[in-house]
Design brief:
There is one protein chain. The protein contains twelve helices and seven strands. It is α/β, with parallel strands linked by helices. Strands 2-1-3-4-6-5-7 form a seven-stranded mixed sheet. Helix 1 (about 1-30) runs antiparallel to helix 5 (about 65-80) and helix 7 (about 140-150) packs across helix 9 (about 180-190). The radius of gyration is 18 Å and the shape is globular. The model has no long low-confidence stretch (mean pLDDT about 90).
């Protein structure tokens, strides 16, 4: 019957999801995260604004997560075959991701295409299963990259979404420069046609799906002072386990949604 078929399909999907999480946990046992991702937790512990959230939400799995491990997980979970990376730098991530069909775009070094992201998208229109954006860390450029990426893929990742210090948003020479990526993420949270959460590790990785927004952020005043007060609402941070639920159902555990709504965006 149709109901039995739907039940079997849901059961199979759940088994595949569990398999992806089990795969991730097994992989994480002997995994050494990127140095930047390890430094993130040290800086978090020293931040008077962010530190209180560490003890409450951090798990052993989250502490070893980085962008590369997240991509391994998504490939396993969804069976992705193709991958596009915007901003490859020294191929720190690009060489580690497990795709045969992969394209890397960078105007200076790394990847497979020597051009800007704007130039790449103007010349190419092929589709990808997954896109990772880590290019120019200016909000306007990030928004263009995401807009273009969503024309080629229904799932997009954006790195450096969660700055911990003001200087990391203003000084490109800072050790961990995040720029104004967070502003682009907050703006995207206000759109109705994309759904977004931020994986809370490795300086914040925004995960963007092309589907109705499950938690629209009201228009907000995107100053650093406002970010300090409302970063949870702006970014919608999640643990790895919460991300897994959100990917499938577009919802977060009740306690997480309550915590997010406890911080009202300043307009």
């Amino acid at each position: 019957s149709q109901s039995q078929s739907q039940s079997q399909s849901q059961s199979q999907s759940q088994e595949e999801d569990n398999s992806a999480l089990s795969f991730l946990r097994d992989l994480a046992l002997n995994y050494v995260p990127l140095g930047e991702a390890q430094a993130y937790w040290s800086f978090m512990a020293e931040s008077p604004i962010m530190a209180p959230s560490v003890k409450k939400t951090t798990t052993a799995l989250d502490r070893v997560m980085d962008r590369t491990l997240l991509i391994f997980y998504l490939k396993k979970k969804f069976g992705f075959k193709s991958y596009l990376e915007i901003g490859c730098r020294h191929d720190t991530n690009f060489n580690r991701v497990p795709f045969v069909d992969k394209v890397g775009v960078d105007s200076v070094s790394g990847g497979t295409m020597r051009c800007t992201s704007d130039e790449y998208f103007a010349r190419h229109d092929r589709s990808f299963d997954l896109v990772f954006v880590d290019g120019l860390h200016e909000a306007s450029q990030v928004l263009r990259d995401v807009e273009n990426a969503l024309r080629t893929s229904s799932l997009v990742l954006v790195h450096d979404a969660k700055p911990l210090r003001r200087e990391d948003t203003e000084k490109p020479e800072s050790q961990f420069f995040n720029g104004t990526v967070w502003r682009a993420v907050a703006y995207l949270r206000s759109l109705t046609h994309v759904d977004l959460v931020t994986a809370d590790f490795d300086w914040g990785i925004a995960v963007i799906k092309l589907r109705p927004n499950s938690d629209v952020l009201p228009e907000s005043n995107l100053t650093w002072e406002s970010y300090e007060k409302n970063w949870r609402r702006f970014l919608r941070p999640v643990s790895m386990a919460e991300l897994d639920v959100w990917l499938d159902h577009g919802i977060l555990p009740d306690h997480q949604e309550e915590a997010l709504r406890g911080t009202t965006a300043t307009t």
